[in-house]
Amino acid sequence: MNRLQLLLNTIAPKRIATFNSASFSFSCGTKKVSNRFKSTSNSKISSQDAGAKEVSSDLNLAVVEISILVSRGLAAFGILHVVTEYGVDLTRCEGPSMLPTINSHGEIIVIEKMSHRIYGIEGGSRGEKRAKDSRSRQKEWEKEEHKMFLANSERKGVYEPTWYKQKPLEANHINHKKLSSLLQRISRFTSGINVGDVIVVEHPEREGTVCKRVLGLPGDMILKPQSPSTERRDVMKLFKNTDGIDIENSNVAILNESSMEIVPDGHIWVEGDNDTNSADSRTYGPVPSALVVGKVWLRVWPLRGNSLIVRGGRPMPPKHVPFTGSTAVPAGCKGEKRVNACNLEVQK
């Protein structure tokens, strides 16, 4: 019995040591496998995170670029809108109503849209005020003119006052371009709507725009003919009676055949240069100034002659051609003679 216990006591520690050694080896192997698995998992996770970050960075960059493009596009659109709405714009003009100033084959013109918004109608939009201001200026002008008349010993006869404001030369006058200085050409962009301006207006009765020349302003008296006549060149001269004799029957007939209309406040009277083939204020009456789109500046296409569209009187047809256009008598005028610009011609 003692030998058996001694033998067991000798063998048992060896087996326990062997078991402990096997257990330790197994645990070490398990830890190595676990560490390898963890390192592999960590490397996969880190690569996925890097890919996600790269995709996110690309998306952010794309969003930034798109936002920049959109903002620049909106800014360009806004600038273009402001320029074309309040600055200058191009439009195609068709129809025969503005011959010979603008041809009927679709000429492209530049419209200036700022000056009429700033200055409105030259002299004001109220006819009564314009008439009073004109009479005040006329009195001052007559004093100076009478002094000049007396100082000129070569002049004989009775002094006849002229209207203080010169009548603009016809746009196709041979001397118009020569006498229109650069300052005068620019001045129409630093002043309001005036007689002689070529403008684009919204049609008062239908959609669309029309190009016409301004003939009358608020308070002006318009004598509109009912039938064409070769004698009706300037109805102003029909009011003159320097010989003390009654006006001739033919002139009375011309006046009787003409209808008179006063341009109301805030309106303008427009007509085409081609008076025989133009639908204008003779058809639809005075046009509200609020419908003015802008002043015609120049012609860009086709390239022919002088491209500038200047402020001036309506081109008159040859004397043998019947004239159907209206005549405007300025507000406050009482029959004074009107002198053409630069005193080239005098209306007698």
Outline the structure in words.
39% of the residues lie in helices and 16% in strands. The chain has seven helices and ten strands. A seven-stranded antiparallel beta sheet has the order 1-2-9-3-4-7-8. The chain has a three-stranded antiparallel beta sheet with strand order 6-5-10. It is an alpha+beta fold and 348 residues long. The chain folds into two domains: 1-86; 90-343, no CATH class. It has helices spanning 2-86, 115-119, 127-151, 176-179, 182-187, 249-256, 281-284; strands spanning 88-93, 107-112, 198-202, 209-216, 221-225, 258-262, 267-271, 287-288, 292-301, 327-329.
What is the oligomer described by this structure? single chain
Report how far apart the termini are: 167 Å
How many domains? The number is: 2
What is the rounded Rg? 45 Å
* Adjacency order of strands in the biggest sheet: 1-2-9-3-4-7-8
Share of helix among residues?
25-40%
| Secondary-structure element pattern, one letter each | HEEHHHHEEEHEEHEEE
Number of strands: 10
Shape assignment: elongated
Mean pLDDT: 77
Approximately how much beta-strand content do the residues carry?
15-25%
Sheet with the most strands, sense and barrel status: 7 strands, antiparallel
- Poorly predicted parts: 14-19, 241-250, 343-348
The structure class reads alpha+beta
Helical segment tally?
Answer: 7
